[in-house]
Write a structure and sequence with these properties.
- The chain has 245 residues and is α+β, with helices and mostly antiparallel strands.
- It has helices at 48-58, 112-122, 125-130, 153-166, 184-193, 206-215, 240-243; strands spanning 3-12, 15-24, 27-33, 36-43, 67-71, 74-78, 87-89, 95-97, 134-140, 143-150, 174-178, 197-200, 218-224, 227-230.
- Helix 1 packs across helix 4.
- The radius of gyration is 18 Å and the shape is globular.
């Protein structure tokens, strides 16, 4: 990921000081599906193969990927199209499919401690240093498989899902952790990927919760400092029913 140094003037306690900050670069990439231009997205310039694969899967356009190649600012994805795509522009500027996402079937369980472990894994040095990125993590069989950062929260989800697709990890046995809010578009992406559990450090919306409920996803938000809120499908959280007051 490209970072550049930029001069700024810091005000603190009635004193102005000239400082050097590290600033995240944003780039544009055009995505092609089966050699036809699909859209242009603003993103960070790492994990581009994963970004392309994940976007197609998370949008519900295809359920498998044949090949992904990157040439400069162009991402070429080959995949058998199995679904429709009607793009809607989300609140964060990302595109998602406004059609009804798939329903997730999974008997996976997660402990309260593992939820907190997923949340802790989201933090990275570059995320904490710049304050300009969203991050997503993918856990498989209880261990972190990958962490990806991007200037867009949607892109960070696509990247970790793309990693799973390209490495043939069964998504029904994965958990995803995100820094960003969970409106319906974000939850729909995870549903189309077939991941049963979302752990977010941020909030959801009414439609995000409704989408998670309908899609069979366990949605966990406000995860921080020994606490979290489970909004949907609490049966996947081990011990939750026994401890409820």
């Amino acid at each position: 990921m490209r970072l550049i140094n930029h001069t700024g003037i810091l005000y603190r306690n009635d004193v102005f000081t000239t400082i050097e900050d590290q600033v995240v670069c944003e780039d544009s990439f055009t995505l092609y599906l089966n050699n036809e231009q699909l859209l242009t997205m603003v993103a960070s310039d790492d994990h581009l193969r994963e970004l392309g694969a994940g976007f197609i899967i998370c949008s519900g356009i295809a359920d498998r990927i044949k090949e992904v190649t990157v040439c400069d600012d162009r991402i070429y994805v080959e995949a058998p199209v199995t679904g429709e795509y009607e793009a809607t522009l989300e609140s964060s500027g990302g595109y998602s499919n406004r059609l009804t996402p798939r329903r997730v079937e999974s008997g996976q369980q997660i402990t309260p401690q593992k939820i907190l472990d997923v949340r802790a894994a989201i933090d990275s040095d570059v995320w904490l240093k710049t304050g300009a990125l969203h991050a997503s993590v993918l856990f498989y069989e209880g261990e972190m498989a990958i962490r990806c950062e991007d200037i867009g929260r949607h892109n960070s989800v696509d990247k970790v899902v793309g990693h799973a697709i390209l490495n043939k990890l069964p998504l029904s046995r994965c958990v995803i952790g995100c820094t960003g809010r969970q409106p319906s578009g974000m939850v729909g992406k995870v549903a189309n990927a077939g991941i049963p559990i979302i752990v977010s450090r941020a909030a959801s919306t009414d439609q995000g919760i409704a989408t998670a409920e309908a899609a069979g996803i366990t949605l966990v938000c406000f995860t921080r400092e020994g606490r979290f809120t489970v909004y949907t499908h609490p049966e996947r959280v081990s011990g939750l029913e026994e401890r409820r007051k």
